[in-house]
Amino acid sequence: MNILMPQLGETVAEGTVSKWHKNIGDDIKSGEILFEIETDKTSMEIPATTDGKLTKILVNEGETSSVGSIVAVISGEGEQPQEDDIKEDRISENINNSVESSQSDLHIKKEESFTSKKTSNLEIVIDTDAPEWFSFLHEVQTPDDNYEAFSSKNIDIKFTPLAKRLANNERVDLIKLADYFKKNNARKVNRKLLEDYISSLSVTKARSNISIKIDHDLYPETVALNRIRRTTGQRLSESWPQVPQAFQAVEVNFSNLDKTRNELKQKYSDRELKVSYLSFVARAISLAIKEYPLVNSCFSEKELHIASAVNLAIAVDLNYNGLIVPVLKNADKMKLVDLNKNLNDLVQRAQNNQLKQEEYFGGTYTLSNNGSMGTYMTAPIVNPPQVAIMSFDGIQKRPVIVEDDAGDTIGIRKIGVLGQSFDHRAFDGAYAASFLKEVKNIIEEFNWNSEI
Length: 452
Description:
This protein is an alpha+beta fold and 452 residues long. The protein has helices at 93-113, 161-169, 174-183, 191-208, 227-242, 257-267, 277-289, 336-351, 429-445; strands spanning 2-4, 14-20, 27-28, 33-38, 43-47, 52-57, 64-66, 70-75, 117-118, 124-125, 148-152, 155-159, 188-189, 245-253, 297-299, 304-306, 312-317, 323-324, 327-328, 365-369, 388-392, 396-404, 407-423. The model is unreliable at 84-103, 105-124 and 133-147 (pLDDT under 50).
């Protein structure tokens, strides 16, 4: 049985084996810890899922491998490991799907566009007009045996003719190119993969052109960035130039929530119950999304994909050592009490590195909470492919104008700010503002006693 590198998050593409708990030749029982991995977001112990003998270790401690690649082989009793199962030219899932999808679309469209038509005298008339999908840069379906090979440093890379011509035109360093595709477990390169590589070079070059001169006498001490901090920086750097982001905020009166919080504490006085304002905000978001579903979607070039559930991603600080965003699945199906319980549990386990694998990915809307820090307003950065993120800041007692039948008076109320950054390609400011207003109205006017 092949042991594969698991995916611990929707944006995680690789993992590093930090420790092996078993050696080659050891007997393995299902459930025993086999090895530990470290990804961009977390570290986790990986248990064996079958009994047998560990016959091969393909990724040693300290080595990095892409998600889905084979890291080890466990053979059953009397079973010999099959060499054919371990392919050195294993193509990563994303690259493989991209190539297959591209070739499949071309094949189908060619058949549709070049359909022969028989005339009355049985002669064949061929439509010579180019189909709508065709452009002069479209690549033919090159058979695998016609890929042109390039070898360097024992690295074998095969190019389609168009890909090779594009590489020559762009003056791509073929040795660096070969190293790049080796790391991505690809051995056959078409135009689409090469264009993606060239685009990544452009982004890297643009970043590298920004040089900062540091006065080391003024800044003598250095602090190394941990893996989570580096990954967060990379993700945010990618989001900011690629997503046209806008930000809006509203002031919200949280005073009416105190009565419900006190009733909850009295009802569950037999156990310690922590009811935070965050739980009310999370519930209000889930309710408001029913009326404004576009904020709970992801963006592609020509369309929005609306999620079937509200999976709230909650930004959690790791004692200033980084930020992770675990996901509370199906939050829209939970009423206040259950949501509060599950939310507190999720945050606590995130801070203690006890999250399950599936809790690292699948978020459809993100909520960032800086309330405990007492901040007034925060403009968060959208986390693609999501299209919106809300910030919840500190709540303070403030003098406000109170309107009633007797006229306007000044009273003391608990006021906080909710802010939302959103992808302006997904929807306009009026839609985003309407969603914010709906969240505000729910917090201030909803019958929260019905949730107890």
